[in-house]
């Protein structure tokens, strides 16, 4: 029983040794991957921006808890800016992948 436990290891990452190395990635697939992540960043920025506007409205509507709503608004605005930055980064990664695909 002890020998079986030693042979079987649980890992968080299930990377296979016979997988492609990063240098062998299909350029079109990489471009599509960055495009997908760019869209996710845009969606995150849109959602966080909408939530920030919602919290701004709630701060005006509920003066008793205005401070809480203002803090939530600032956090949501920060998340929106970060997500937009991520989308911008992925846009440039996509352009670079597209450039390498044409070569």
Automatic annotation (TrEMBL):
Name of the protein described by the UniProt record: Abscisic stress ripening
Biased composition range(s): Basic and acidic residues: 16-30, 53-66
Domain of life: Eukaryota
UniProt-annotated stretches for the region Disordered: 1-70
Gene: ASR4
Organism placement in taxonomy: Eukaryota, Viridiplantae, Streptophyta, Embryophyta, Tracheophyta
Annotated family: Belongs to the abscisic acid and water stress-induced protein family.
Biased composition range(s): Low complexity: 42-52
Signal peptide limits: none
InterPro entries registered for this protein in UniProt: ABA_WDS (IPR003496)
